[in-house]
Amino acid sequence: LSQQGCRVSALLIHSDLDDWEVKGSGGFGQVYKARHQKWCCDVAVKLLHDDDGTSSSLLREVRMMCKGSSPYVIPVLGVFKDEKNVRQEIAKVTLQGPPPWPLAFRLTHQVALGINFLHNLSPALLHLDLKPSNVLLDSFLNAKLTDFGLAKFSQSVTRKSKKYSDEEEGGTISYMPPEAFSISYNPTRASDIYRVQHLIWCFLHQMSPYYALSSIVRLRIPQGDRPSLDEIRFLAAGRAGLARLMELMQKCWETKPAQRPTSHGKKTGWDGCLRA
């Protein structure tokens, strides 16, 4: 694995882990929580189904996560000899209703810091699947980005044109930017920035902006339809910084990628809004 661009050196064996507990599953396999006996800490373990070509994809995801190492990105701690990925265990925190405004601002800021780190790598690393389920909270309610299965380095997407028509390539439809529905779509940093506004909306509402409407989203988003801000606007009175956060959301969902802010810099409004 080190020869393929990842610095993870720990090779784990099954006997090191105990107290296995299923935490999630999908087409690729299952994610478990386990206790590492020697490290004395909990870890998350991604185990694949029978090898159907997905092992190379998982190794690719591990390398992406190694490259994107940041306080706001889930770290990879080691790899099984059979190429399973072990990550730091993050407490699965469920917020009861929308978070308090200060917490919503902090989560937004931490996501922005994580994306800013990825986008300032050389070449830039594009996450391309930002959504609430891919932002985990630790026991101190700090946000950390995870799931780099669709991530790409910017130089790897500039020389090809392909229509991203399903979740395997373009990400979750409800969070895809309008340009992703074009046959000539080439992901850029702005593709991630569009998805950030959906995260902000979800932080404030604790629900998906387009619940069960994926077929309509595919048609309406390229035409300019966006989530409603009516409820947030009603609650904004007297809430310091909320109006600026709404303004930031609207900038992030601009139809033209070039009109969206970057994840860094005072010129684009991130710093001013998130320090409010």
From TrEMBL:
<dbReference type="InterPro" id="IPR008271">
    <property type="entry name" value="Ser/Thr_kinase_AS"/>
</dbReference>
<dbReference type="Pfam" id="PF00069">
    <property type="entry name" value="Pkinase"/>
</dbReference>
<dbReference type="InterPro" id="IPR011009">
    <property type="entry name" value="Kinase-like_dom_sf"/>
</dbReference>
<protein>
    <submittedName>
        <fullName>Receptor-interacting serine-threonine kinase 3</fullName>
    </submittedName>
</protein>
<dbReference type="InterPro" id="IPR000719">
    <property type="entry name" value="Prot_kinase_dom"/>
</dbReference>
<dbReference type="InterPro" id="IPR051681">
    <property type="entry name" value="Ser/Thr_Kinases-Pseudokinases"/>
</dbReference>
<feature type="domain" description="Protein kinase">
    <location>
        <begin position="17"/>
        <end position="274"/>
    </location>
</feature>
<dbReference type="GO" id="GO:0005524">
    <property type="term" value="F:ATP binding"/>
</dbReference>
<feature type="region of interest" description="Disordered">
    <location>
        <begin position="256"/>
        <end position="276"/>
    </location>
</feature>
<dbReference type="GO" id="GO:0004706">
    <property type="term" value="F:JUN kinase kinase kinase activity"/>
</dbReference>
